[in-house]
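Write out this protein's structure.
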Amino acid sequence: GEPYLRLAAVTAGGDANKALGYLEAFRGIHSSSCEGYYRMGRIYKALGRKSEARQAFEEALHVYRSLPRYKKREERGWALRSFWARNGV
């Protein structure tokens, strides 16, 4: 799933719809990543889809709450970014 996430990050500046496609593929494979939902929310926000962006940020926080302790340590930064971004939408 990581290659899809990296492809989405690279193509987000040029072709947002293609980046969303990569993120959807990533989500289908690896749904327990706060980073993926955060990046998806950022792309939705850039496209002007504020309700979908807020939903993606909420999903990132939901995933974070359900993670085991050792994984939370790795994902904490993305969860905080999602929290701040959710409040800014």
